[in-house]
Amino acid sequence: MTTLAAGPAQATPWPTRFGATDCRQSDLGLKTTRVPDPNDVTKYSTCSMWFQGKKSCKRGKVFSPTKLKCVKPQPAESPKPDSSQVGATVGK
To answer: Which of 9, 29, 75, 85 is deepest in the core (most CB within 10 A)?
Structure first.
């Protein structure tokens, strides 16, 4: 007869199943959170106490760290000239 030793219950998250994630311990709660990939704007990690996984946005989209979802990339705005310097010339 084999006896199994019962230890204290542990509330540790399941190990990552689908590749490395960028989840921090503070991201592993009951609610699912999304964390941007620091090296690729088209990827993010889904983090919770029960699941952690790396995901990719659909083609042509990037992950928005403020909206926490994949969005169409916004074109970069060119800086607007300062109205006090319009027409100014550099003197000697």
So the answer is: 29
